[in-house]
Amino acid sequence: MAMTMTPRLSPRATSAAAGPRRWRDLAILAALLVFVVLGFAGLASATGWTETWAALGALSPAAMAALLTLSLVNYLARGLRWHLFAGQLGLPTTIGQDLRHFIGGFAMSVTPGRLGELVRMRWIGRETGWRFDRTAPLALVDRAADLAAMAALIALSVAFSATGLAGAVPVAILAFAAAFVATRPSLLRAIAGTGHRATGRRLPRLFARLRRAALSLDAFSRPSALLIAGLLGTGGWLAEGYAFHLLLGWMGAEVPFWRAVGIFVFATLAGGLTGAPGGLGGAEAAMVALLALDGVPVETALPATLVIRVTTLWFALGLGLLVFPYAERLSKRTADALEI
């Protein structure tokens, strides 16, 4: 049975097109890193380097190992959720493949435009032959599940540490609303139709792909799968929130558990809303500000924020960089085998 293959750009043409974009992305990332480093250095200088270094020195290698282990729990839990969603979509992938795709995508976590999801879709396409419009719902529902899990944790934090259950209701409603939208294809089809009409029926292929992607969302509507996915996502993010609670205690800041979880999750969400790669700048600023408002001295809030970002965002990036070359090489090998 003959297979029709889509034409590919030559490596030279692809490289020429990607070159300027790659340098632009690197420049944006470098500028953000400089901004974050200068901000930390300025605050540390204003509050006293001695206190900042003393707080960092209070952490033992065993403490750092514990923080990294809890971050790894988060990545593995969310990787298992990715595998669950892939199975619901009908992808013929193994748990090893799905974990490789999910962890490898972290290599792109500090690049503009959420390229981690696109890289994962490319690997899946090479290894299964599925087109992007068939696999796009996987990235959509995974992102929505993260939002729902983090919003639920913020609701629990508000309920147990500040204003009581009533104050948590609006956030909890938003969490469930995000999960509802991600698993209701009729809403996405309506958005596609509205967008098609609003643009004067331009870009028909784009909106046709969006409608096809909406049809695939039916696969994620099973209550049992959503329940398991919710438990995995919430448990994963809770592990990192617990790591933040432990870190603050080790540095001498007695912040209650649910308050620490709320600060960590809210700062992570705030960083994501800025649109900066990996939430750089926004997440750090929000975390330091929230800790300061909670009475944590700046000379403690600064190193705590630095350490938790290293053991979460930058640890994920490091794991992704380790897995990325292997995932890329294996996907190319599989794609070449399928073409034979």
UniProtKB/TrEMBL annotation:
<keyword id="KW-0472">Membrane</keyword>
<feature type="transmembrane region" description="Helical">
    <location>
        <begin position="147"/>
        <end position="180"/>
    </location>
</feature>
<keyword id="KW-1003">Cell membrane</keyword>
<feature type="transmembrane region" description="Helical">
    <location>
        <begin position="56"/>
        <end position="77"/>
    </location>
</feature>
<keyword id="KW-0812">Transmembrane</keyword>
<dbReference type="InterPro" id="IPR022791">
    <property type="entry name" value="L-PG_synthase/AglD"/>
</dbReference>
<keyword id="KW-1133">Transmembrane helix</keyword>
<dbReference type="GO" id="GO:0005886">
    <property type="term" value="C:plasma membrane"/>
</dbReference>
<feature type="transmembrane region" description="Helical">
    <location>
        <begin position="260"/>
        <end position="280"/>
    </location>
</feature>
<feature type="transmembrane region" description="Helical">
    <location>
        <begin position="225"/>
        <end position="248"/>
    </location>
</feature>
<feature type="transmembrane region" description="Helical">
    <location>
        <begin position="300"/>
        <end position="324"/>
    </location>
</feature>
<protein>
    <submittedName>
        <fullName>Uncharacterized protein (TIRG00374 family)</fullName>
    </submittedName>
</protein>
<dbReference type="Pfam" id="PF03706">
    <property type="entry name" value="LPG_synthase_TM"/>
</dbReference>
